[in-house]
């Protein structure tokens, strides 16, 4: 029995030893030819680029304790079982190089993921040899100063699931066959302003999740078959050259959370019924899409919206109360329409608003205090609206995050008192109002972040305490076309624009004006 027990123990120890060997041997070091390829790529980079503290290649060494195993180098990922390099992430490394067709990167044939985003490839074209990496499912070359033609060889990379070529200088026609890749989930070629192309017919088996071609020269009509992209979450076609009608089949894409069709060349339309089913939308941008008519009641269903922009259209009628169901809204832009009536006081329910623009409509009156409960407001634009300031002068109520206030041509007769407490204000526009009297001294100093102040075309007569303006942040000052008399305040030393024309300022200027070294435009 003892011998049998000893045998079993020895056999058990043998198994443990064997398993240890298997575990050790399966945690493989990288292959020599791939290690050599990576080192050759590093050597092709300028010394200042490869040695930068930001460059991930700085850890790639030909000798040293960790030099044998390239799998331990920054930005390199290997398969645990085979040791082959399957991932390369050199994003945001401040590399300055040219990507040549003979680059040794293209010998890493087991790569599944390649990320070279946010570098400086000095107007290199994308080499067709990238298609040798036939196992790639993820390619990100965004914001890296690539130019030239997108190689049509990409359309043969059957395993590609995500392709991001955005924010570059790519020219020519987009290879339309890329749209037909059977596994492509994400395509982003936005911000290539000279890239031409058109949308193909989409079939019902297309797996697209994201399609972003904004800020390109894509043109033609949007095919009705786009509605076949039932799994699409994001569709961004803004600032292109699409014409014809907005297809109502977009309403079939019920998984959409982000839709932007802004700034194209669509036909005039009042049909927004296709929006009804898109209740998962969190961002909707239909700026300048030639829409007209009344805002539809279906907006009541969009309770997930955080961004809604319908600016630069021809919407009429009053703001419907159903908009107040959108309690998640952070951005609401209804500017440059033909909306009428009064702005509803129920706006105070939208407590998450950060950016609100209702400017350039035909509203009959706006009571400014309805926005005072929106404590997150950073941008408020009511230009062209008749504003009533009904907050008492002794009130110290403020909008604590307010950074930009545009009240241009609002029939104001006095400075909004709450500005004294707007400590984060960066830009103040009060031009073309009916404000009389002195420019209060506090207007220059209410915020130490104030960069722009526009008080032109009012009836201002004098400065309180007309000495040097102590603000260090002011860059642009426009107090032209008023009735100002006396000495000009000395602007801060970093001022770029100081416009004082069409006032009653005496001829001589203070010698202290010479200390404003950066002023590029003094208009008098």
Automatic annotation (TrEMBL):
**What's in the GO CC field?**
plasma membrane
Presence of the UniProt keyword Iron in the record: no
Task: Report the leader peptide range.
Answer: 1-21
PANTHER family, per the entry: DISEASE RESISTANCE LIKE PROTEIN, LEUCINE-RICH REPEAT RECEPTOR PROTEIN KINASE EMS1-LIKE-RELATED
Its subcellular locations are: Cell membrane
Q: Which family does it belong to?
A: Belongs to the RLP family.
> Which SMART domains does this one have?
LRR_TYP
UniProt protein name = Leucine-rich repeat-containing N-terminal plant-type domain-containing protein
Q: Gene3D superfamilies, from UniProt?
A: Ribonuclease Inhibitor
Q: Which Pfam families match?
A: LRR_1, LRR_8, LRRNT_2
Tell me, which GO biological process terms does this entry list? defense response; response to other organism
Ranges for domain Leucine-rich repeat-containing N-terminal plant-type come to 31-79
Q: Which UniProt keywords apply?
A: Cell membrane, Glycoprotein, Leucine-rich repeat, Membrane, Repeat, Signal, Transmembrane, Transmembrane helix
InterPro entries, per database record = Leu-rich_rpt, Leu-rich_rpt_typical-subtyp, LRR_dom_sf, LRR_N_plant-typ, RLP23-like
- The answer to keyword Ion transport applying to this record is no
How this chain sits in the membrane, per its record, is: Single-pass type I membrane protein
């Amino acid at each position: 029995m003892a011998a049998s027990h000893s045998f079993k123990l020895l056999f058990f120890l043998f198994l443990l030893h064997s398993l240890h060997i298997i575990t050790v041997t399966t945690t493989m070091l990288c292959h020599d030819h791939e290690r050599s390829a990576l080192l050759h790529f590093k050597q092709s980079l300028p010394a200042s680029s490869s040695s930068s503290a930001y460059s991930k290649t700085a850890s790639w060494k030909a000798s040293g304790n960790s030099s044998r195993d390239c799998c331990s180098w920054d930005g390199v990922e290997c398969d645990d079982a085979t040791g082959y390099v399957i991932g390369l992430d050199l994003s945001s490394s401040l590399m300055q190089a040219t990507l040549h067709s003979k680059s040794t990167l293209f010998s890493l044939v087991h790569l599944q993921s390649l990320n070279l985003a946010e570098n400086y490839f000095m107007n290199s074209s994308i080499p067709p040899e990238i298609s040798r990496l036939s196992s790639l499912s993820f390619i990100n070359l965004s914001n890296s100063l690539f130019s030239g033609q997108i190689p049509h060889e990409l359309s043969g990379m059957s395993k590609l699931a995500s392709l991001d070529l955005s924010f570059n200088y790519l020219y020519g026609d987009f290879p339309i066959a890329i749209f037909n890749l059977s596994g492509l989930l994400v395509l982003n070629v936005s911000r290539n302003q000279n890239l031409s192309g058109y949308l193909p017919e989409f079939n019902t088996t297309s797996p697209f999740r994201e399609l972003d071609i904004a800020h390109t020269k894509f043109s033609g009509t949007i095919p009705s078959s786009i509605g076949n992209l039932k799994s699409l979450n994001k569709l961004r076609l803004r600032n292109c050259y699409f014409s014809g009608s907005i297809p109502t089949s977009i309403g079939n894409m019920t998984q959409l959370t982000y839709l932007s069709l802004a700034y194209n060349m669509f036909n005039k339309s009042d049909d927004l019924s296709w929006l009804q089913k898109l209740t998962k939308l969190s961002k909707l941008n239909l700026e300048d899409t030639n829409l007209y008519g009344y805002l539809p009641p279906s907006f009541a269903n969009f309770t997930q919206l955080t961004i809604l922009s319908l600016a630069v259209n021809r919407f009429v009628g009053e703001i419907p109360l159903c908009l107040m169901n959108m309690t998640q809204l952070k951005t609401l832009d209804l500017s440059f329409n033909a909306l009428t009536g009064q702005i509803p006081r129920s706006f105070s329910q939208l407590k998450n608003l950060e950016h609100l623009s209702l400017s350039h409509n035909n509203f009959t009156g706006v009571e400014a205090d309805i926005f005072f409960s929106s404590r997150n407001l950073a941008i408020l634009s009511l230009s062209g609206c008749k504003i009533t300031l009904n907050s008492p002068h002794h009130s110290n109520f403020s909008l604590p995050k307010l950074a930009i206030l545009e009240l241009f041509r609002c029939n104001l007769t006095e400075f909004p008192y709450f500005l004294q407490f707007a400590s984060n204000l960066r830009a103040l526009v009060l031009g073309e109002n009916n404000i009389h009297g002195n420019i209060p001294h506090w207007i220059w100093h209410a915020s130490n972040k104030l960069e722009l102040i526009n008080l032109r075309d009012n009836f201002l007569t004098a400065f309180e305490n007309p000495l040097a303006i102590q603000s260090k942040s002011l860059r642009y000052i426009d107090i032209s076309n008023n009735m100002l008399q006396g000495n000009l305040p000395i602007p801060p030393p970093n001022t770029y624009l100081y416009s004082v024309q069409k006032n009653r300022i005496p001829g001589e200027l203070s010698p202290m004006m010479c200390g404003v070294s950066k002023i590029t435009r003094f208009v008098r």
